[in-house]
Amino acid sequence: MFVLSLSQFLKLMNRNEAWRGVSLLDLGAGDGEVTACIAPLFNNVFVTEVSQTMQMLLQKRGYELLEIDKWHSARKYEVISCLNVLDRCDRPLLLLHQIKEALEYGGRALIAVVLPFSPYVETGSSDHKPKEVLPVSGESFEQQVSSLINDVFTPAGFEVIVWTRVPYLCEGDLRQSYYWLDDAVFLLKSVH
């Protein structure tokens, strides 16, 4: 899976190569490949992941694995990344609230969402539909970005600093070896 390069991350953050952060939390870190792109910039790297197989891979990489239900009350983080998770979790509004509460003062949230928006919950839902539905509307990529900003992030207490569109390359299945999707990546700050 590929979402952002180190240089793209630094550009979004408006930082140069010499910048170093204190703490990164990567929610839904998967196998840690994306985490590995930006982890060298931080003194402390924390991760969460639902899959036990992926949890083992993350621990082998040396990341501190946090419990999926307790990460938001453990400490505050300078940067929280949540890349392509909002459309795969059962309670995305709760997740956004937890991210807001877990950011340190002046911290940033990096949120990536595949568009067109199509939620699909892999675990914890018998019908694969989330318990909480994000009110994303619009037909075009731009309309859905606008809806995410106005109908999801702003009501959740975030301000969008910058956003970009990037190709999202992810592992495929039996029909196709990889998928090329469109990701909207948002850098947010909490509005207190």
Q: Note the total helix count.
A: 6
The assigned structural class equals: alpha/beta
Report the end-to-end length measured between terminal Cα atoms: 34 Å
Average the pLDDT over all residues and give the rounded result: 92
Shape: globular
- H/E element sequence: HEHEHEHEHEHEE
Strand content: 25-35%
Number of strands: 7
This entry's quaternary arrangement is single chain
The biggest beta sheet, please? 7 strands, mixed
The rounded Rg comes to: 16 Å
Determine the fraction of residues in helical runs and give it as a percent range: 25-40%
Describe this structure in words.
- This protein has 192 residues and is α/β, with parallel strands linked by helices.
- Helices cover 27% and strands 32% of the residues.
- The chain contains 6 helices and 7 strands; from the N terminus they run αβαβαβαβαβαββ.
- The protein has helices at residues 6-13, 33-38, 52-60, 71-74, 92-102, 141-153; strands spanning 21-27, 42-47, 64-65, 77-83, 103-115, 158-171, 178-190.
- A 7-stranded mixed beta sheet has the order 3-2-1-4-5-7-6, sandwiched between helices.
- Strand 1 (21-27), helix 2 (33-38) and strand 2 (42-47) form a beta-alpha-beta unit.
- It is globular and about 40 Å long.
- The model has no long low-confidence stretch (mean pLDDT 92).
Keywords:
6 helices, seven-stranded mixed beta sheet, 192 residues, alpha/beta
Ordered list of secondary-structure elements with their pairings:
Blueprint: H1 6-13, E1 21-27, H2 33-38, E2 42-47, H3 52-60, E3 64-65, H4 71-74, E4 77-83, H5 92-102, E5 103-115, H6 141-153, E6 158-171, E7 178-190
Parallel strand pairs: 1-2, 1-4, 2-3, 4-5
Antiparallel strand pairs: 5-7, 6-7
